[in-house]
Amino acid sequence: MSETSLRALLTGPALLAVIALPTPALATPERPPCTLRGDRDYARKADVPRAALEALGLADMAERGAPWQEGDVIRPGGRLPFRRFVAARIEGCRLTVRYEQGGFAHRWGTAVAERHGLTWIAVRR
Fold first, then answer.
1. Picking from 92-96, 102-106, 113-117, which range would have the lowest pLDDT averaged per residue?
2. In the predicted model, is pLDDT for residue 9 greater than 80?
3. Which domain holds residue 47?
4. Contact of 51 with 45, CB cutoff 8 Å
């Protein structure tokens, strides 16, 4: 490979593509390997591992179909959660949670956690 083509590779879009690639989770003393296998879909928040929801900061969201704070107008009475569970899926050691978020503007959210040993770690909130 010539010096010019090597320089182009190290400074061009190819480098950005390589940097953006996700790195595989390696087992280290701080990050033990996960032993979970298989896939599972969750239709109810109550069935999702609570420790994973806590790691994602989603433990207080409303159950699917339950009352929640859709808009930004707070009505008298008890406060409702601003997020509501939609669905979740676990694939191996990766849990993906879909939820709705209310407030000023309704939006959909996706959060991802990975299990390392016995601990759930938030990857994306």
1. 102-106
2. no
3. 33-124
4. no
Q: Are strands 83-91 and 39-42 parallel, antiparallel or unpaired?
A: antiparallel
The reply to whether 7 falls in a domain is no
* Radius of gyration for the alpha carbons in the chain, expressed in angstroms and rounded: 20
For residue 122, the surrounding DSSP H or E stretch is: strand 119-124
How many domains, the chain? Answer: 1
Both tokens of 22, joined, read 């996700």
- Environment class of 114 (CB within 10 Å of its CB; exposed 0-12, middle 13-18, buried 19+): buried
Determine, yes or no, domain membership for 12.
no
Q: What pLDDT score does 11 carry?
A: 52
What band does 7 get if pLDDT is binned at 50, 70 and 90?
very low
Letter string b/e over residues 40-50, b meaning 16 or more CB atoms within 10 A of that residue's CB: eebeebeebee
Condensed to tens digits (0 to 9), the pLDDT of residues 61-82 reads 999 999 998 888 887 877 899 9
Q: Identify the CA nearest to 48 among candidates 35, 58, 38, 34.
A: 58
